[in-house]
User: What shape does this take?
Amino acid sequence: MSRQRHAGRSALLATLALGLLLAPPVKHALESSMTMQMLLQLPLLVGVGYALAIALPAKALARAAPWNRFGLTGLVLVSVVGALWMLPRALDASVTEPLVGAAKYMSLPLLIGLPLALSWPHMNFIVRGVFLLEGIATCFRLGWLYLISPDRLCALYLLDDQRRLGQYLLVIGAALLLAVAGKLLWGRFDAADAAAPK
Amino acid sequence: MSVLRTLLASVTLLLAGGVALNATTGGFRVFTTESARRAAVRAHPVTVPPAALQTQSGTRINLADLHGKWLVVDFIYTRCPSYCIALGAEFAQLQDRLAGPIAQGQVQLLSISFDPTYDTPPQLAAYLQRSRDRGHGWIAARPLDADGLHGLKRAFGLTVIADGFDGYVHNAAIHVVDPRGQLVEIFDLGELERVELAVREGLSP
Assistant: This one.
């Protein structure tokens, strides 16, 4: 398949997914629980940005690349914006305040999904490993916090919901850890996989 | 060159991110909506709107009529099996702690129901009795119209969600309103000393 057709399909997919996520019944359902918002809505929005990145023209990519050596800039952006969306008050406000809600729908695709997709191919496997392990550690930290916290961290969601999310995060963290361990043990690390210096 | 450009872009983003995080968390202190609401009220007191209320004796009053006194306010529903029982017990203790100012008409305790359909005056009276109301300076009331309740929820930052078992989960707290009708402090359950201190400090400028 040509790159152009690939890009076209990717753009279509991103648009459709964003439209679906914006549909009021879907949005309402996904925001009705903390678990759904954090484990479905937010990752799907990141996925929209990831698909958008594939649709970007090669020219734009070439112009951005010198500013993103080893994918470092993208990594910083993803981490900072990710930290903002980990604040319980941000999750609450994204449901109750329309402006914050709009910021969520814009920033997760454009400031997390897109830069992650652009940076990942340029990151060498040590940087990838650090990034993944930090992600795994975050799953464990948040999961543990949600499980043991006697207080509701989000004003909009129930304690049961928060604890269930905590359990899921521990499971997800463990699954990612196993995947990384599997890659270390049996995976292949080609030269093409590592950052190719230019 | 591209290493320098990348470094520049990364450091800029890191600084911008730090500024944004610092602003969103009020200097890395406020992470939840509840703590944000308390910090916001402390920094910028909120004017409490008027609201038509019906008390446990059936009397109709307006929240604005109570201005001129220090108000200690909580939000409850009388079927509540947890927080509202604790809040009730604490309000009864506040009646003892603030007995002097209450007797002089300087302080009023007020429990407002956010479930006005069920919480009729007899239910409110029963709630006071269960909470060992000392019989002075404590009103339990329900808003008479939906607009009034909505205005109170907004001004006080009250969030009520259904708990899935025919009850509610809410951000239980003790609110202090000054005589000008400004919400000035919000305290947790169990912070009776601080509530008493805030009111007494307000009374003796």
Summary: The radius of gyration of chain A is 18 Å. The interface with chain B takes residues 65-70, 72-73, 76-77, 79-81, 83-84, 87-90, 92-93, 152-159, 198 of chain A (CB under 8 Å). Confidence is low (pLDDT under 50) at residues 191-198 of chain A.
